[in-house]
Amino acid sequence: MSDKTIQGERLRxxxxxxxxxxxxxxxxxxxxxxxxxxxxGEGALQMREGTVYPVLYRMEASGxxxxxxxxxxxxxxxxxxxxxxxxxxxxxxxxxxxxxxQQFVQVVGGIIGGTT
Amino acid sequence: xxxxxxxxxxxxxRPLVASHATKLRIREDLYSQLELIYQEELARDETTALAxxxxxxxxxxxxxxxxxxxxxxxxQVVVRFDRWFVRRRPGESVLGLALRIATRMTLxxxxxxxxxxxxxxxxxxxxxxxxxxxxLAVVALLFGGNAFLMTLLGHVAVTTFSLHNNRLRLARPxxxxxLSLLAGTSxxxxxxxxxxxxxxxxxxxxxxxxxxxxxxxxGGLFALVAFLLSREExxxxxxxxxxxxxx
Lengths: 116, 247
Known about the structure:
Chain A has 116 residues and is α+β, with helices and mostly antiparallel strands. Helix content of chain A is 54%, strand content 12%.
């Protein structure tokens, strides 16, 4: 039986694009990013939740996302949280990533799915 | 803050080769994440909440490898140099630290001056060593001596600040003023000695301005550095004080 979860290297290669897609709709805290990834992945994504931060730091260093402190008191328990938002460069990167993904699916899907 | 959650975070972060500011940011981010995970797990089962939260965050060794890759090579080099040169080692006395810093500072300057003078002699065909060698040797010794004194004074100066309602306050202004005066005086005396070696003058009206400037600027800079180091120390203290069990 095939493993229906996506984890490890298969996940890692696409995590940046997936995070950009999550942040495209609204800025989010790391915890909320993981929750949305799991919801939109319908439970198939298996990841260590701490992993999202090294990815966010790399993306921040590349200018794809920007962090700011969320000082609003509503719906917040405990200390203030850092929220990540997508930048213009991140939006361009996401658009490029979507193009590349569609091309990848077309090409590989044509080979794997095709019959001679 | 929950000490057990802090320990989980600290296991991943403490061994990182990164600046204090970077490690503090990582600690805050991971703690914030872990606290939310823990609240979720508490709602499910109190007895296994901590273990499940730690599992969900990820093994500290694996997380550490991923986090280390986000620290630039330049930052890692600077941190390693800082640790070798000025950071106090576990179990090292303040006097030992001061001697180590002074010795390394003096030797580094001497090496730099020897190389520079050697290059000057080769390139310009001059006997630079004969001309300014004594002055440079005195400069290196004065730098080392000041490094020794500033380390000792600085160790006391950081205790003049304390945390009150999450804000750093000057608890002992008289002591800080006295220490800054000592530091400034040391810089002033160093300036006078350099003038004497360079110019043959030890006490002259022309020296008043540069010596006074060295005293005031040096003393002010000392107080500022003491404040900045205290602020950094207060932020890191809750994490540094955690005892992490091995195994």
